[in-house]
Specification:
The protein has 137 residues and is of the alpha+beta class. Helix content is 24%, strand content 27%.
Length: 137
């Protein structure tokens, strides 16, 4: 999980955790909320790990409501240079011509997730409900 603190759109702090989202997100935000006054929240609403997206959304939506700050979402391709995102087996989430779907790929080239140095707020919207794009089983 990657968390960035931005001031006037420019990153000022990066926080990374290899722990499960359910374990690390509350601890990270406990620290952040002690040190910063947040004016807005931005997150990758999917596609990706169903549980991580669900936990992130519920947690961030709760913070948004309790702290009365807006929550914005963008698809996860913003954070990996629009490269495929692993779904399951040989299925990957891809974004082609603005449409996100699953596609069988032989190559396992996926995009590494990163925090941009400057946050482009124009790609985010208040439509922040998770993108639950699940492959057919």
């Amino acid at each position: 999980m990657l968390v960035g603190i931005y001031r006037e759109g420019e990153i000022i702090e990066k926080i990374e955790s290899k722990e499960k989202t359910s374990e690390s997100l509350p601890l990270i935000f406990e620290d952040i909320l002690k040190r910063y006054t947040l004016s807005s929240l931005y997150y990758a609403k999917g596609p990706g790990s169903f549980m991580a997206i669900k936990i992130s959304y519920i947690f961030l939506k709760t913070v948004s409501i309790v702290k009365d700050i807006p929550l914005f979402g963008a698809d996860a391709f913003y954070f990996n240079n629009n490269l495929p995102i692993k779904a399951t087996g040989k299925l990957y989430f891809v974004k082609e011509n603005g449409i996100i779907r699953t596609k069988k790929l032989e190559s396992k080239k996926t995009g590494e997730f990163y925090l941009p140095l400057f946050l482009n707020r124009g790609v985010f919207s208040l439509d922040c409900e998770p993108l639950y794009i699940l492959p057919a089983v």
